[in-house]
Amino acid sequence: MKRVIVVRSMWMGAILLGVSFVAFVLMRALPGDFVLAAAGAQMLQPDVLDAMRRDLGLDRPLIEQYLSWLGAALHGDFGTSFVTRQPVLHELWPRFLVTLELTLTAAAIALVMGVSTGLASARFRGAADWIVRLYNGFILAVPNFVVGTLIVLLVGLYFPELAVLSYVPFRDDPLGNVSGMFLPAFALALAISVTISENTRAAVLEVSNQDFVMVARAKGLLPRTILWNYLMRNALTPIITVTGLQVATLLGGSILVETIFAIPGMGQYLFDSITSRDYPAIQAIVLVAAACVVFVNTLADIAYAHADARVEA
Predict the structure, then answer these.
(1) Is 87 helix (H, G, I), strand (E, B) or coil?
(2) Residue 148 within any structural domain of the chain
(3) pLDDT per residue over 287-311, tens digit each?
């Protein structure tokens, strides 16, 4: 287990380093920069634009800019926003907590829905299996941003007393925060729950045909004992893998869902930063999002190794 943790941690550092460099280069490969975006329709003289770039450090070689940013980032300094002139970390942290809450809520909903429907489909078969498979196929064909838009429209038409587009901080009103987060998290979780459901069904069906399950049934063990001690325990490894991968993708989907439901998370912050070419903010958001994805995948690998003793690295 220690070897797994060390190896995965080393890979995590290497991946984050590569992601930070690629994001740094790609943002500066886009046409225009912050100076041109800030100037807008104003016809500023070239020497004025060059002076603004020198003030922001954009005139230095690309590698020098990256190494300077990386050295500061390793000490927890993500730079100063070009737009607000405030430390990026101070602006990003509260937005990260909002996105983290949305992602964890959606992950919990997806896990409960996916495992329960997949288990019901595999155990009861027949009509239950057909209903679950049809439902999964329908939900999988509808993107989460479409589901989110439909939720906003339907709730606004038929339940106007529910405030769908008003985010309430948890410290101000915990109950209002939870109720306001449920619908966005539900829209984000639907597609992920389908993938978890299908993989749970396949894993349970595969384990059901193993000899040790048949022996347990022949010994007359209780169905719930067979379910939890034999079926679910041995079907955990593929479920853990797919759950880790799918939960990591929630961060990408949260950008659209946050925009639809007007949630002040990292998604809206990233959209505004890209529009204004706010390089320090974009780099910090990309690095934090990549760190979350890699961290979740690393936890999934460690959990996989813990569940399956045959995995050593």
Answers:
(1) strand
(2) yes
(3) 888 888 888 777 777 776 665 555 5
Instruction: Return contacts of 17-22, CB within 8 angstroms, 24+ apart.
Output: 19/286, 19/287, 19/290, 20/70, 20/73, 20/283, 20/286, 20/287, 20/290, 21/66
In the structure encoding, which two tokens stand for residue 193, read together?
């729950």
Task: Tell me the two tokens of residue 127.
Answer: 């009509």
Burial class (CB in 10 A: 0-12, 13-18, 19+), 120: middle
Residues 6+ apart with CB under 8 A from 234: 207, 210
Tokens at 228, concatenated: 């939890």
Residue-wise burial string across 30-51, b where 16 or more C-beta atoms lie within 10 A, e elsewhere: eeebbbeebeeeeeeeeeeeee
pLDDT tens readout for residues 77-115: 888 888 888 889 898 999 999 888 888 888 889 888 988
- Residue 236 in any domain: the answer is yes
Number of structural domains in the chain:
1
Asked if 295 and 12 touch (Cβ cutoff 8 Å), the reply is: yes
In a domain, 16, yes or no: no
Report d(CA 266, CA 99) in Å as an integer: 6
Q: Tell me whether residue 33 is in a domain.
A: no
Which domain CATH number covers 240? Answer: 1.10.3720.10
